[in-house]
Design brief:
Elements (H helix, E strand, L loop, with lengths): L3 H15 L11 H14 L3 H15 L22 H12 L23 H10 L7 H16 L17 E2 L2 H4 L1 H11 L1 H22 L9 E2 L10 H19 L8 H19 L8 E2 L9 E2 H18 L5 H14 L26 H23 L1
Antiparallel strand pairs: 1-2, 3-4
Bound molecules: 2-acetamido-2-deoxy-beta-D-glucopyranose (NAG) (4 copies).
Length: 386
């Protein structure tokens, strides 16, 4: 039974809960975004940095070619110039393969998943190429897929290892490989495509089983001869953002109606990370590098990518409960980008547990700013069209 006093308390609560929704955002100017972007392109050298930068370019500049935009497969014929920076970069990488018969697209520094992050752009390049007799991109993408599915080591229950020399699972993998497997499936279509979409989903499911804690946050690295069981901010963001891309790839494919429960699961797994993360947001909007550890340090990279996923999730579900947190994070990220377009206060993406050294910048952090800006833009547009 709810008495009058309780109703008054509830009404009071609602007012308190509604209040943070008024956190307003001052968006980046186009001039700053363009500096952030050119720094991103200059700085990306490792396979995963290039894959992430290619995704950021696609979401920012060619939204209808991204998995958040148009239906899949994309059109075969693009108007001249469309997607050019993405397909030209992918072309350069495929042409630079030292051994055309090597399976991964590029050297991955021992990582199984990272080279695959470039695969989406290679698939797009194949699909939209003007020289229809050129099968180089199709072969390169097919080889990359074969490596993931037939060569890379796995756990006994089928999780593909993130490392080639031993079986080891990293949350990072979820952004690198499943989105490519899913995209390949969405373009292939039919029963082969359906089974690839299911494999992408299954990898997310297996990774969550190994890495998720009861808090809802994911550990960074398990199995193998060392581990990082902290709740690394960037790792949680990679996992949530990777699952979001798989989900959107399924949704925009012709096979969406056959994968309803998979879409519901992915939505709930993304929400689980997003909800668990913002519980630990600090008053100026930042997350800490190890999200739930008070002696960790502020990290703008993970804050940016998690905020981007939060806007994407709200655009999809219409549930705005985490928008105040994302808005606070957006404002913090905007004030953390300096006048030259560099994101400050990042974690060093190669140590995972120290800040970037003075004067050093995070290549993936630059991409996360772009992903955040694109997600915010699309969220705002969805409100206007609702
Ligand atoms: C490359 O594109 C062609 C269509 O031109 C398609 O038939 C082929 O399956 C594509 N290859 C891959 C690996 O997606
Ligand atoms: C773990 O094993 C791999 C492969 O056997 C080896 O290259 C690496 O140095 C080892 N690392 C540690 C910390 O023992
Ligand atoms: C935000 O707050 C955290 C925690 O108090 C602090 O460590 C960090 O330096 C602050 N960041 C900025 C950009 O002021
Ligand atoms: C970071 O992690 C490495 C490897 O686990 C460890 O040796 C080092 O002490 C850690 N540094 C800090 C600042 O926690």
């Amino acid at each position: 039974m709810v008495g009058r006093a309780a109703l008054v308390v509830l009404a009071g609560c609602a007012a308190v809960l509604a209040a943070p929704a008024t956190v307003s955002v001052t968006p980046f100017s186009n001039a700053v975004i363009s500096r952030v972007k050119s720094n991103m392109v200059k700085l990306a050298t490792h396979s995963w940095e290039i894959g992430t930068a290619l995704e950021a370019l696609t979401e920012l500049e060619w939204p209808s070619l991204s998995v958040f935009g148009g239906s899949l497969p994309p059109p075969v014929k693009l108007t001249s110039g469309t997607g050019a920076d993405v397909t030209e970069w992918a072309t350069k990488i495929v042409k630079a393969k030292p051994d055309p018969n090597a399976l991964p697209l590029i050297d991955g520094d021992g990582a199984v998943g990272d080279p695959a992050s470039i695969g989406v752009a290679v698939e797009l390049t194949n699909w939209t190429r003007t020289d229809r007799g050129d099968h180089e991109f199709s072969t390169a993408a097919g080889h990359q897929l074969k490596y993931l599915l037939e060569v890379a080591p796995r756990t006994s229950d089928g999780a593909i290892s993130h490392r080639s020399e031993q079986v080891q699972l990293w949350s990072d993998f979820v952004y690198m490989a499943p989105p490519f497997i899913a995209y390949f499936g969405a373009l292939e279509g039919g029963s082969g495509g359906l089974s690839l979409l299911k494999i992408a989903y299954k990898q997310c499911k297996l990774y969550r089983q190994y890495l998720r804690d009861s808090s809802g946050l994911w550990k960074h690295i398990v199995l193998g001869n060392w581990s990082d069981t902290h709740h690394w901010g960037t790792g949680n963001a990679w996992a949530a953002a990777g699952m979001m891309r798989v989900l959107q790839t399924i949704r925009h494919s012709k096979l969406a109606s056959k994968l309803k429960s998979e879409q519901a699961d992915l939505t709930s797994w993304i929400n689980e990370i997003v909800s668990a993360s913002w519980k630990h947001q600090h008053s100026n909007g930042t997350l800490f590098n190890y999200i739930d550890e008070s002696n960790s340090f502020a990290d703008s990279s993970s804050t940016a990518l998690l905020a981007s996923v939060t806007y994407r999730l709200a655009t999809l579900t219409g549930d705005n409960s985490h928008i105040p947190a994302a808005n606070k994070a957006y404002n913090l990220i905007r004030s953390s980008v300096d006048s030259n377009g560099w994101l400050r206060n990042t974690v060093d993406p190669e140590t995972f547990n120290t800040s970037s050294l003075p004067g050093a910048h995070s290549p993936e952090g630059q991409s996360f700013v772009i992903l955040l800006h694109a997600a915010y833009r699309d969220y705002k547009a969805s409100l206007r069209s609702a």
